Amino acid sequence: MSVSRRGVMKGGTAGALSIALAGSLDTVFQTEAGAATGEAHGYGPLIPDPKGVLDLPEGFSYTALSAEGETIAPGVRVPGKHDGMATFRGGHPGSLRLVRNHEQRSSGVKPVAPAALVYDPAAYGGTTTLEVDRHGRLLGQEISLAGTAVNCAGGATPWGTWLTCEETEGFTGETKSHGWVFEVDPTGRRTEPEPIKPLGRFAHEAVAVDPLTNTLYLTEDAGGPFGLFYRFLPRSHRGGYHCYQAGGELQAMLVPGVPDLAAVDEVGARFRVTWVPVGDPEAKTTSIRKQFEDEQVTRSQKLEGAWWGRNSAYFVASYAERGSGAAGDHAGQVWRYHPRSRMLELELLFKPGGRYDGPDNITVSPYGGGVILAEDGDGEQFLIGTTKQGKTFSFAKNALNESEFAGVTFSPDGRVLFANRQSPGVTFAITGPWHHIKR
């Protein structure tokens, strides 16, 4: 059963989530307890939105597009619980496509799609593909996958497809098994509602792809016992759609002498990693994480984001609490795995505290050398920016309610930031004077 992404540290003791990012940047950035609140950094104070939807700095504006319940076609509406998202090349000059997850399980606005795109008729999750012009204006949208469940995060492949991950191991009423990864073609030509079973059945969170070998690194957000960090060695290194359906080997990470990553509290600590084959990736009778004794693998509470950069796989453990069975207390760890040396290194460690809590999805900002984080915490919800120096600032506020932000991603030219409000679901296209950031 997945741990709530809203965390367990409430009120004044809310913990600041550790965030790291590699990608195209030269360093790893962080937000930490006591960091600047934003008035002197970023784009200035937020201006209250007269419509009460989205507060932004002066000079910025938004367009709300693809809202939950909106009619796409006769009998077809936009599903809710908008979540992870990525951008891809569009089908018209200057346009791009967004593939967006819907983290619905067994209720909500049900995705309606042709039978050729439906996996389990009882499930309410799936993906929607939007086409927008260079200014972020909606040109069209369609349900691109239906009948999946709790589509949370995922990852983009080097060949331009979206791996959408089910953060569940099943639910009442299902007609097929769940806990899989599915591949979605943004063009809509090749998508098949077939799980990539070699990648395992578990509560998937995110995926990072090594573009040289197409090796996958996958996080598991689960409890009882805590989840694992996996890698998948594909049988074929050529890549391309259906690459992972061809098979390979799923393995779980073991750091000898470290049964729980929460026990590590020294930044810069390095460990040699061993990879343990998974006996039954499809978890036909037993969840994968329960197929191992504690000394056979290394576990972690609340494994979330994963991404590839600087020839390494980065992944985040959002928090850990001894009261929940963890080996230590922290408000976030960011780990870097070096495939060539098989070394795991703790890059960042955070203690509870700070103005913001529960950042989740993350994207590189082309401006100021920092990142934009989607907050999923308690109370008010923000899009949080960071500068290259690690200063944090509020970039946007959900002025409507306390629903989380998700799916932050820039257009390839950096002119538009797309972000989702999860409930009621809506995708925002945000434009403005990006170059005017205060460092």
From TrEMBL:
<dbReference type="InterPro" id="IPR006311">
    <property type="entry name" value="TAT_signal"/>
</dbReference>
<dbReference type="Pfam" id="PF05787">
    <property type="entry name" value="PhoX"/>
</dbReference>
<protein>
    <recommendedName>
        <fullName>Secreted PhoX family phosphatase</fullName>
    </recommendedName>
</protein>
<dbReference type="InterPro" id="IPR008557">
    <property type="entry name" value="PhoX"/>
</dbReference>
